[in-house]
Design goal:
The structure holds two protein chains of two kinds.
Chain A lengths: L11 E4 L10 H13 L8 H18 L3 E11 L22 E8 L3 E9 L2 E10 L3 E6 L4 E5 L6 E10 L1
Chain B lengths: L1 E6 L5 E7 L13 H12 L6 E4 L3 E2 L2 E2 L16 E3 L4 E3 L8 E3 L4 E3 L10 H9 L4 E6 L4 E6 L3
Antiparallel strand pairs in B: 1-2, 1-3, 4-5, 6-7, 8-9, 10-11
The chains are: A alpha+beta, B alpha+beta.
Chain lengths: 167, 149
């Protein structure tokens, strides 16, 4: 008897463990998120963001041989006690131009829950909860709907999103 | 063109980059690894000491062009930098295999596979058999296999 996996919905997550002295400057990222939100501008490219992006690309390739190519990036701040609407980064009517993966990075977060919705064949709308922590990333298929829950009473959560396609 | 391995945690190679030789010249105009490391730190935001020069033409501690081998093997993704012995090690092929520093390669606990006999070689040339030894990790033996069987 043999088995062939035709498709998988995998969740990749972990800390971004940069070398000492080269840590991701999360203050810079949260400042950029605020700036881009306040002035309704695109999230600016920065050395800090680039370090995060390269870390992800290199380590995902090293460990899983998936070559990630950037699609888009932006940052959000989520209010205290906020439960977001469900997000879906893949466009069901334009899959050709949709990303393959959604990556969330904890810039400044606390009690931040990510709920990822997925189908397991005929078992539809299953969900998986994972807590997003500071300096941690979670990457999952862009075809999965997800939402974020900020369980804090009075502080905002800052989350960076990067979408990728793969070769 | 010079090549540098980028080291991640546990001295694992996470990338290999090329560098113009002119970007690693010291004040005397001599190629200097530390100058290259500083250049890479500045332009790639990764600590200088975590960039290690590697030789494109070195494999199993032999220089393919007859030169002096440098650091055992050309670094590849997933290789491990052995600082003490100055060797880039590929992944361990089998659990029982051990490091052989002189050849910068992994060796089976019972040594290399036996040489094929003259008869076996003749049969390969004749195309009637395709003899070769493969490692049997369960029994820690070299098993003779006929690829045409």
């Amino acid at each position: 008897m043999q088995k062939k996996v035709l498709s998988e919905q995998a969740l990749y997550y972990g800390d971004v463990s940069m070398p000492k002295g080269f840590e991701i400057d999360r203050d810079k990222l949260s400042g950029d998120i605020l700036q881009s939100q306040l002035f309704n501008k695109e999230f600016p490219f920065s050395k800090t963001w680039d370090m995060l992006n390269i870390y992800i690309q290199e380590h995902i390739y090293l460990n899983y041989e998936i070559q990630l190519i950037n699609k888009k990036t932006w940052g959000n701040n989520y209010k205290a006690k906020e439960t977001t609407i469900p997000f879906l980064q893949a466009d069901p009517v334009d899959l050709r131009h949709s990303p393959d993966f959604t990556l969330l990075y904890g810039v400044k977060v606390e009690n931040c829950l990510v709920r990822i919705l997925y189908d397991d064949n005929r078992r539809k709308n299953k969900s998986w909860d994972i807590e997003l922590k500071n300096n941690m990333f979670i990457m999952f298929p862009a075809t999965c709907m997800y939402y974020l829950i900020n369980n804090q009473k009075d502080s905002e959560n800052f989350v960076q999103t990067i979408t990728y396609e793969y070769q | 063109m010079a090549h540098f391995a980028k080291l991640g945690s546990n001295n694992k190679v996470i990338a290999v980059l090329t560098l113009n030789n002119s970007d690693m010249l010291n004040a005397n105009g001599v190629e200097d690894e530390t100058v290259g490391q500083q250049y890479l730190e500045k332009h790639n935001n990764w600590p200088a000491q975590m960039w290690i020069q590697t030789s494109y033409n070195t494999i199993n501690n032999t220089h393919l062009l007859g030169g002096t081998p440098f650091r055992g093997n050309y670094a590849g993704l997933g290789y491990t930098w052995d600082e003490d012995n100055e060797i880039f090690w590929p992944k361990k092929p089998h659990a029982s295999w051990v490091k052989h520093n002189e050849s910068a390669s992994w060796k089976s606990p019972i040594g290399d596979a036996p040489a094929l006999t003259a008869e076996q070689t003749n049969q390969i040339i004749a195309g009637t058999h395709q003899w070769g030894y493969t490692w049997n990790e369960d029994n820690t033996t070299w098993d003779l296999i006929d690829g045409l069987a």
